Amino acid sequence: MQKYWYRLDTAALIFPATRRRNWANAFRVSACLKEDVDTEILQQAVDGLRHRFPSYYVTLRRGLFWYYLEESSEQVRVRRDYAYPLTFMSSRELKHNCMRILVYKNRIAAEFFHSLTDGRGGSIYLCNLIARYLELKEGITIPCEGLIRDLSETPSPEELEDSFLKNAAEVASGRKEEPSYRLHGTREDRGFKTLTTGIVETRALLDAAHRYGVTVTALLAGVMAESIIAMQNAEKPRRRQRPVKITIPVDLRRLYGSETLRNFSLVLNIGVDPRYGDYTLEELCKNIYHQLCASATRQNMAGMIAANVQPQKLIPLRLTPVSIKNAVMDAVYRRSGESGGSLNISNITALPLPEVMLQYISRMEFIIGPQRSYPNNCSVLSFGGYTYINMIRNIRQSELERRFFSRLVELGIAVEIESNRR
Fold first, then answer.
1. pLDDT tens digit string along 194-245?
2. What is the rounded CA–CA span in Å between residue 383 and residue 376?
């Protein structure tokens, strides 16, 4: 029986090339139900979504010229979530499946190797998995509203397309950026990742953002930039400092009306240069907000898309063996892939779900892992009147979290803290 296979989308090409023995780019979306999960029924739901979301039930394969995704002959098995979030996805695991479904008591988590999809695509899959699970367990019918798809349909070509190829400009924008300041610390043993979650009322967060005339993302990025600037000030004199920029992913589906379930986001490095003087928090927030508004346009993003798409079309590169491509892409990634930002803040805005589902779900979260070259990351998701701010790190030092959440409290935003570190 012939297996289906998929070319890696434009954003996905970099992730196999930049993997290391202790790092692979992955992320998690999860939901807590109001009752403990029946793993047998959940397994039925996972199996039942294969035909509707085939691009997630795949393995990573290495060809002569490119990596590609191939339909997996193995079942994606529901497993107990026994360790810290985003444990390392090894090459051996990716040869079997590139997605994990994990359960702990009432929590369902889906973890994805980033070559499959981005945060929005992953959240669509999880929401449909929960919907199918509730239908099987509770005997209810969930309408196809918001993010919920009709499971009797086959995926449309638009859902499986590489939307980067359709929306690239004719001229590529430049990649060159001055390197940002980098956080550093003592690495944890055995790849352990500390997850600190700050739970805040979404209304309080919105009110604080509106006081400055900015979005929630700009507010959080401003508070994060202020915290990092203070840490850099304590470390080195101003003349030796570097810019502090927050890497903010932009979901391009909204800009271009795309329905793809694969990767379709790009990042912007937004921030300030503290060598030029001091900034108030209001100035930081407004500076970041206006930079985002100016940069996240169809035209500007099309130029950035072209910078990634055009190299794929070069005949010499297409005919270069994958081992050499890996070395080239890894060098580019080291030089420009992460150097422009100090850390990520990835914010998945509210997930529209049918009303009937909401009574069964108490909480939803989004977690991205640390990047290869910097140890801290932040991801945000709002659900049910609360916003869950997940700060993850692979170093022992917790100063960034302390500064960041303390500043939110100073702004009048009450923060409840949870952590996987005892």
1. 999 999 999 999 999 999 999 999 999 999 999 999 999 999 999 999 999 9
2. 23
User: What is the architecture, at CATH level 2, of domain 5-166?
Assistant: 2-Layer Sandwich (3.30)
**What does the pLDDT average to over 321-348?**
84
Do domains 5-166 and 189-419 share one topology? The answer is: yes
Q: Averaged over 352-365, what is the pLDDT?
A: 97
3-state secondary structure 309-328: HHHHHCHHHHCCCHHHHHHH
**Distance from C-alpha of 383 to C-alpha of 413, rounded to nearest angstrom:** 17
Rounded Cα distance, 114 and 99, in Å: 10
For residue 418, give the H/E element and its range.
strand 416-419
CA atoms of 416 and 422, how far apart (whole Å): 16
**Location of structure tokens 């994805």:** 112
0.90 surpassed by pTM: yes
**What is each CA distance from 172 to 175, 265, 287, 301, in whole angstroms?**
9, 16, 25, 10
* pLDDT at residue 376 greater than cutoff 70: yes
